[in-house]
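Help wanted!
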Amino acid sequence: AKAGGGTRCAVFDGSMHRAAMARLGLETDLRGAVAREELTLYFQPIVSLETGNVVAAEALARWSHPIHGKVPPDKFITLAEDTGLIGALGTWVLDEATRQLAEWRKDVPQAARLEMNVNVSPWQLRDGELVETVAATLGEHGVPAAALKLELTESTLVEDAARAAGVLRALKKRDVQIYLDDFGTGYSSLSLLHRLPLDALKIDRSFVGGMDGGTTGAVKGAEIVRTILALARSLGVRVVAEGVETHEQLAALRALGCDYAQGYLISPPLPADEFETSFLRREPP
Ligand code: C2E
Ligand code: CA
Ligand code: CA
Ligand code: CA
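Answered by r_m:
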């Protein structure tokens, strides 16, 4: 039996009880969603501000509910976390994102060095099997570890910092990259950041959105972004700006020396085939 077995059983019993109470129709639906192949991944491009090229895709889960249509992840990821379904869901996401990456790297010449960002939930980090699952998935699909970036939020890491640091170091040892998601919204201390083997910070979109226009708020937003960039430099990590929606933001980020950008200005998350035609098969300008 694995170390996390006891916890998982407790979660499972709790969720079975709740299902028996039939209070959460959505929970029952989600339970079968993976098996019924209702889950899909959308992909949002991440561009290099230096070259303008798409260097990576962030995989974002969507649930095509037979009645409710496309359910966004903030609606079902929490539900999955609370009911223990996140284990199966997270493993599916990792497998599907890696499979798609392998296909693109093999079939599309322009995607030969494409990288993939995958979101990892707190539960997956605590589970004790993440390192093995990641290694097995990369091996199965023949993707080099350095092409996979796992995105974790600050709160995930703060919760059990010592354990998280251990898991991250084990992933780093295998060459997997670690990105700190929604940076600036959590409570991570500088000492924690120094101890974690991070490759990049993703500036939360609330700060990027605050960069525009001539208002006092905009000055503050730009100042926060500037400060995060300086911090990142001192830590020796790269920076991705999330939620870039205007040309003004993009120009300001480039001027400040931000490394990568992601947001609706470039593209919303897209189904795999649309991502491929729009960003991988496009002629270079
Ligand atoms: P996130 O990891 O911060 O992902 C970025 C979210 O911002 C995505 O929402 C994306 O569609 C949205 N976004 C991208 N560009 C813009 C922009 O320019 N403006 C605005 N306003 N929004 C933008 P989405 O796909 O609804 O995902 C929400 C959250 O759900 C994600 O936030 C992530 O925390 C979680 N999530 C999504 N897929 C997964 C998954 O496979 N596993 C786990 N554990 N969490 C996931
Ligand atoms: Ca598989
Ligand atoms: Ca993310
Ligand atoms: Ca984020």
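OP: Thanks! One thing I noticed: Residues 181-182, 202, 242 surround calcium ion (ligand 4) (CB under 6 Å).
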